[in-house]
Design a protein that fits this description.
Elements: H1 9-18, H2 20-31, E1 39-42, E2 45-48, E3 51-53, H3 61-70, H4 79-87, E4 90-91, H5 95-102, E5 107-112, E6 123-129, E7 135-140, H6 146-161, E8 166-169, H7 173-176, H8 178-187, E9 190-193, H9 228-261
Parallel strand pairs: 3-4, 5-8, 8-9
Antiparallel strand pairs: 1-2, 2-3, 5-6, 6-7
Helix pairs in contact: 4-5, 8-9
Protein name: Transposon Ty3-G Gag-Pol polyprotein
Domain Integrase catalytic: 99-265
GO molecular function: nucleic acid binding
Length: 291
């Protein structure tokens, strides 16, 4: 499946014509066609590293994201494979972020109840990523409320994986509560419930198997809700994530400075003699060291 084969090039060009930023780039390329640049103007097409350029507001982007990820052809392949497929022939500003945002994971949830108490807990909440089969087994103390379950879900799942597209649950009273039904749609999550005659739609939580590593934390979707508790929870989460990002940025800069403090850039020429430090081999069978 090729990207340019399913793209309406006439639509691409019309949208590029209306994009002021791209038109400035085209004008510069026309004035200086010999100038070295990653962008080229060839055969009335704007290319970036040989790839067709779309406007970042193109109406084709949602269609492409759906085709190369959500459809049968896309196969929910995950970020890297989806991005590589699309970026092989197409490019637009912010493409990587758009693809990353699209690859939101969907989850199923269920409770294992009636267990003997161990450490004060007697319930396990099983949460599974539908695509990767990555699973979480979260302990709870009975009785618990919808608000407590939501708080645990946000702390253990959303904090690590961002907001899922959808969550499949059974018809437990927790999942039928007004708080639960108000919270998740407000965050942009679709709630899906299995039926009494078709419970196997949520069967993977019982077949939980570890898969690939969890995906990176994505951007937070801000919404408004008339429910004060939900609004407070969302605002607190937003503040926590922003604070975490700032602290991570500061920590990374500090580590970079510390690592670079005792380093200096070394340049060697062919034929120069240098000292080479050889560390002892762990295997005693290797008697001689060789460079």
């Amino acid at each position: 499946m090729t990207t340019t084969g399913i793209v309406d090039m006439e639509t691409v060009w019309k949208e590029v014509e209306k994009d002021e930023e791209l038109q400035k780039s085209i004008e510069q390329l026309r004035m200086n066609p010999e100038e070295e640049s990653k962008s080229k103007w060839e055969n009335e097409r704007l290319l970036y590293k040989g790839r067709v350029v779309l406007s970042k507001t193109s109406s084709l982007i949602p269609i492409l994201l759906h085709t190369f990820h959500d459809s049968i052809l896309g196969g929910h392949s995950g970020f890297l494979r989806t991005y590589k497929r699309m970026s092989g022939e197409l490019h637009w500003n912010g493409m990587k972020a758009d693809v990353n945002e699209r690859i939101l994971e969907d989850w199923t949830m269920d409770f294992i109840k009636g267990l003997h108490k161990a450490g004060g807990v007697n319930v396990i909440m099983v949460v599974v990523d539908r695509l990767s089969k990555y699973a979480y087994f979260i302990t709870l103390k009975h009785p618990f409320s919808a608000k407590q379950v939501a708080a645990v879900f946000i702390d253990k799942i959303i904090r690590r994986h961002d907001i899922p597209n959808s969550v499949i649950t059974d018809r437990d009273k927790i999942f039928l509560s007004n708080f639960w039904k108000e919270l998740f749609p407000t965050m942009g999550t679709i709630l899906k419930k299995n039926t009494a005659f078709h419970p196997q739609t949520d069967g993977q939580t019982e077949r939980a198997v570890y898969g690939r590593p969890p995906p990176p934390l994505l951007s937070y979707k801000d919404r408004k809700t008339p429910n004060n508790e939900v609004e407070s929870l969302l605002k607190a989460r937003n503040l926590a994530i922003n604070a975490l990002k700032e602290k991570l940025f500061v920590a990374q800069n500090r580590m970079t400075k510390m690592a670079d403090f005792r380093r200096r850039e070394l340049k060697f020429k062919v034929g120069e003699e240098v000292y080479l430090k050889l560390r002892p081999y762990k295997r005693r069978s290797l008697g001689k060291r060789k460079v």
